[in-house]
Specification:
The chain is of the alpha+beta class and 704 residues long. Strand 21 (587-591), helix 23 (596-601) and strand 22 form a beta-alpha-beta unit.
């Protein structure tokens, strides 16, 4: 899993951890209030509460408010309460918006902050002009209340985004602070995790977290890797198996040799991928950014036109209030939040499920994928042989499997380990073997219960001038047709049985392909294996199309072939020779246990090797896109209705939208968008349950 670290060195210098107090918008662009250090949710909260306290007397002493509610406050200096406190609210509460407006103006990227800054500045200047007797209109209470509402909206927005981005901090907090390092003398000493080095051996006790990526050198334990891979079931890990930093040893103690620390761990790689995803742009985000910029010019034009029309109608007071209200209500706040918040939530949620989105465009495209091309070995299959069938001359298949396991018990060959594992799975009593010897290229031989037993392929039979008996002809023919590796059991010079071994198909693959078919997706498989092997796996899994005997350099041609036929293609692979195909595909999905090259070429990385995650990616893609579209329609639709009302188009009917009400509506629009995005948390990314594992297929020569 240390392969999850493909980012360039600049990522190491500018990793996912934000500076304290800084806020970065996950939408790929920074809004004005994000461009200044110190703009944190806490800052907006503090300014909100103080500004609210100062705004209460401003509103209470407003002549308009007193007239509306029929009360009168008279005390010395009452007329200066609103100007003085309103100025403080403008400078202190409105400060972040004014700074953001200046930043947007300098960058020539007008957006919500420039609109807010213009609105409160115009209202502030007009109020002082009225206080000094130049105008009859006075909107101190409205500008103060507007700033308070804007502060509240930004506080809620940034807190929501911060919660979504909290996935990065949560990942960092998974690592323990201390580790127990085993010294050369065998003693255990506590040390800070930061002091661990490659090659150190650490002790992980039951219930403890693995402090760094490494290899188990002693002990066996069930490890909870759900925080990294999204797999809820504990995984048994023993000597020579890899373990991931932050995984929890549910039972048993293990000793782990450290292979990677710090920025080289899988956890650090995941953090970088999540950060990259939240900073990348999607097509929908680009559309939202353009709409927000366009809205600034529309709002400015409408505000100027509104001022001119009301002024021509002889109502300068209405001209000022209507134009300011247009600027306020047209703030593209909801539009600016529509995509970034959905992105932040979706990338954080997917990371917790073991789905790492490097490129948001890949996630956006995944919803339209109608063909998924899987690499076979290591993706649909485990890349490890397993016993697929046993046949015997006398009908005692268990006996043949037991004899083979006895002979192979001392062999380190992958096929030997598969035979021994199959015997254990069936609970067979494997007899002891003596005199083991390996015959290179032919097989192995040993003495079992006083008989000489050999296990090997066709070369063994040719060497000894033997032939398989007629009773084995039918299963042997079927196995060879499937391309299985066939081993014969020879006891005292007679062929007594045979075993078929095949690359083990993942049950997860079966569940994934069935789910993709239910969604109307065409499933294809590509492999360099022989045609009969590929066809056998395809028949097992119900795959629609097979590309077999494909050279590594030609894998991308299969992707291009599917694309020429009109398919939107997702390629799923894990090896170096998959990289060109991953890059050519509309969506490249790399298995997280694969190589750096494959991961670098993909837009989405699966932290585990479970192909069911592909279904979850497609489900998340559709849900995220629908939320983005819903938010964009709401934000744009709201402005289409609200701006004409703010300009006073219904003034002839007696309806005039107050400035403060416009601010409330604008903030409500933002809240609606934020709440709608939060519904993404309900999307179920859990993999479909697997069927019960089938026993090793023995008996009467039948085999999968």
């Amino acid at each position: 899993m240390t392969d999850l670290m493909p980012e360039a060195d600049h990522q190491r210098d500018h990793g996912p951890r934000a500076e304290p107090g800084a806020h970065h918008h996950p939408g790929g662009t920074e809004s004005g209030h994000d461009k200044h250090a110190g703009h944190s949710p806490e800052m907006f909260k503090n300014r909100f509460w103080l500004s609210l306290a100062l705004t209460v007397p401003v509103v209470a002493t407003s002549p308009a408010v007193m007239d509306w509610f029929g009360y009168l406050l008279e005390f010395p200096g009452r007329d200066w309460v609103a100007p003085v406190l309103g100025t403080v609210v403008f400078g202190y509460g409105g400060g972040p918006f004014l700074k953001g407006a200046v930043a947007e103006a300098r960058a020539r990227q007008p957006g919500m902050m420039l609109l807010i800054g213009m609105a409160i500045t115009v209202a502030f200047v007009a109020s002082w002009a009225a206080t000094l007797g130049f105008f009859d209109v006075e909107v101190w209470w409205e500008v103060s209340l507007l700033i308070v509402i804007m502060l509240l909206g930004h506080w809620l927005e940034m807190r929501a985004i911060g919660q979504a981005q909290g996935a990065l901090a949560a990942l960092a907090e998974l690592l323990p602070d201390q580790a127990e390092r085993v010294t050369a003398g065998g003693e255990v000493e506590p040390v800070p995790v930061a002091e661990l080095a490659t090659g150190d051996v650490v002790l992980v006790r039951p219930g403890g977290r693995v402090p760094a990526d490494g290899t188990i050198v002693e002990g066996t334990a069930e490890l909870d890797e759900s925080m990294i891979t999204g797999e809820s079931n504990p995984v048994v890990r023993g000597p020579q198996e890899r373990v991931i930093a932050a995984s929890v040893a549910a039972d048993g103690a293990i000793r782990v040799r450290v292979d990677a620390v710090g920025e080289d761990t899988a956890l650090a790689g995941i953090q970088r991928l999540v950060a990259q995803a939240q900073e990348s742009k999607s097509r929908t985000q680009v559309l939202a950014d353009r709409a927000a910029a366009l809205l600034f010019y529309v709002a400015l034009a409408v505000a100027v036109a509104t001022f001119a029309v009301w002024l021509l109608l002889g109502q300068p007071d209405s001209a000022l209030t209507r134009s300011v209200t247009v600027l306020i209500i047209a703030c593209p706040h909801a539009l600016g939040l529509a995509i970034p918040l959905v992105t932040a939530i979706s990338t954080a949620k997917s990371a917790r499920s073991g789905i790492l989105v490097k490129d948001r465009l890949a996630l956006e495209l995944m919803r339209s994928v109608d063909a998924v091309l899987f690499d076979k070995t290591g993706t649909l299959t485990r890349g490890e042989h397993a016993v697929a069938g046993v046949a015997s001359v006398d009908g005692d298949d268990d006996r043949q499997l037991g004899l083979a396991a006895a002979v192979e018990a001392d062999s380190e060959h992958p096929l030997a380990r598969a035979i021994v594992a199959a015997a254990r799975q069936r609970g067979l009593a494997v007899p002891a073997a003596t005199g083991f010897r390996s015959m290179t290229g032919r097989g192995v031989e040993a003495t079992v219960d006083g008989a000489t037993v050999a296990v090997g392929g066709p070369a063994l039979l040719r060497e000894r001038g033997l032939a398989a008996p007629a009773g084995l002809a039918e299963p042997l023919a079927r196995w060879r047709e499937r391309g299985a590796a066939v081993l014969h059991v020879v006891r005292d010079g007679q062929v007594t049985g045979a075993l078929a071994l095949e690359d083990q198909v993942r049950e997860e693959s079966r569940a994934a392909i069935e789910a993709l078919h239910r969604q109307g997706v065409t499933v294809a498989m590509i492999t360099g294996d022989a045609r009969q092997v590929a066809d056998a796996v395809a028949a097992d899994l119900g795959i629609d199309e097979v590309f077999a005997e494909v050279l590594p350099e030609d894998k991308d041609s299969a992707v291009a072939d599917l694309q020429r036929r009109g398919h939107t293609v997702a390629m799923v692979g894990d090896g170096v020779n998959d990289a060109p195909a991953l890059a050519r595909a509309d969506v490249g999905i790399a298995i997280g246990a694969g190589t750096d090259v494959a991961i670098e070429s993909a837009g989405i990385v699966l932290a585990s090797d479970d192909p069911r995650a592909v279904v979850a990616v497609k489900r998340l893609s559709g849900a995220s896109y629908h939320k983005m579209v819903q938010n964009l329609w709401w934000a744009a639709g709201y402005n289409l209705v609200a701006i004409p009302l703010a300009a006073g188009v219904l003034a002839w009917a007696g309806f005039v939208l107050p400035m403060a009400v416009g601010a409330v509506l604008m903030s409500l629009s933002t809240i609606v968008v934020a709440l709608n995005a939060q519904l993404l948390r309900r999307v179920d990314l859990r993999p479909a349950p697997l069927p019960r594992p089938a026993p090793v297929p023995v008996g009467s020569g039948t085999g999968a």
